Description:
The mean pLDDT is 91. The chain has one domain. The chain has seven helices and no strands. The longest helix has 38 residues. By secondary structure, the protein is an all-alpha fold. The protein starts with a helix and ends in a 6-residue tail after the last helix.
Amino acid sequence: MKARTWPRRVAIAAILLVGISLGALREFLFINLNYQIDHLARHTRFSYAHSQFIRWTSGMELSELLRLKWLLGAAFTAVIMGLCILLARSVFRHWGYSRGIVLGFAGFIVLALLLHFAAQWAAPLETISVHVSHMLQYPVALLFVLMAGWLPRTTTETEDRPVDGH
């Protein structure tokens, strides 16, 4: 094993570990946020949300929880996109795929929003919109970057990109 391979593998593993941890955090936050939103929207006697989460959101109105949900969704999308860029840098040893990753995320965001707005005419599109937006908020996007590293590289690609990334 080459000397530079080990730190590269550690960086890749660290990025994946952070992504997986953030996915678990996202799951906890959104499950409990949805429970709390449901509790306020339907005026139920109690919330199924975790007691700590209920304390964190104590006094928040339904509109504030919905705003928080959109804000957290955008934040998790941005962080996962950033991790994808860092992972691509670690896998391919250059920043050349950063723009493509940003454009890919932007394209899926636009698609999710278009589906969301089109759902007023075709209700099943809302479910698809939600699944597309969730895809961008979970570490599954990191797996696509990692698997892209397994694809064979063309000769011009390896000749055009120096190993040090400059």
